[in-house]
Amino acid sequence: MPATLSVKPDYGVDAPAVMRNLFLIGALCLLIAVFGPHIITLGQVSILPKPMFGWTAGFLLVEGFLFLFYVKVGKFYHRDKMLSLHTWRGDELVLDVGCGRGLLLAGAAKLIPDGHATGIDVWSNVDMGGNSAEATHHNLKLEGVESRTTLLSESAAEMTFPDATFDVIVSNLCLHNIYDRPTRLRALHEIVRVLKPGGTALISDYKHTGEYAAEFVDCGLAVTKKRGDPITTFPPLTIVIARKS
Ligand SMILES: C[S@@+](CC[C@H](N)C(=O)[O-])C[C@H]1O[C@@H](n2cnc3c(N)ncnc32)[C@H](O)[C@@H]1O
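^ thats the input. predicted complex w/ S-adenosylmethionine below
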């Protein structure tokens, strides 16, 4: 086993640079607020840096701790909430779009003893720390779901699956990472295409969820939205629930 792989499933840190910057800049602002000058005079203008940097530090550090809480605790509650939005038969074919280190993929696989779950990802280390097919495969093994899961390296916007392949499609915090709108819409159309009639897509994100919902409605799906728990999800997440008739 490579030295970097843990003995317990490790679902990684989402957007590690964002987390690092919140704490780093927050700590810097705090230092200036505590040890900086009381007043700075630039010509005719006087600035009071302590309150300004104090508030900024407070804001960034609170955000940092909320994000850390989501990464270490909240995302497991959010996974369970997402998966509870489907009534499981146990034989579904599931797709996790942007599965990262397998949080939803492993969770779904445990609910389908007679089914199969496939995860696709482009393994970006900017979007997820320590992201790789190998790390995810290791988690799936530790969770005991290796035999009913498959990992594929492919993009949400260019899936190779035939039309109407999956009963359930899940995705958490993936699609906002596709920055250009046409490609994001292509990914949504791919989700609609590979979803079976009668199937359900559960797409969770912190932004663009209005766009996802509108596009699914345009594609003829029945759509509702549900907010993630405000305490355990940071940034606040919304789940788009789309059913294909
Ligand atoms: C913030 S992580 C979330 C991972 C996982 N869904 C979770 O909730 O733990 C976002 C994931 O989306 C993946 N991703 C980004 N763009 C993608 C794309 N175009 N197609 C597939 N996956 C993508 C990244 O590699 C990363 O693993």
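The first strand starts at residue 40 and ends at 42.
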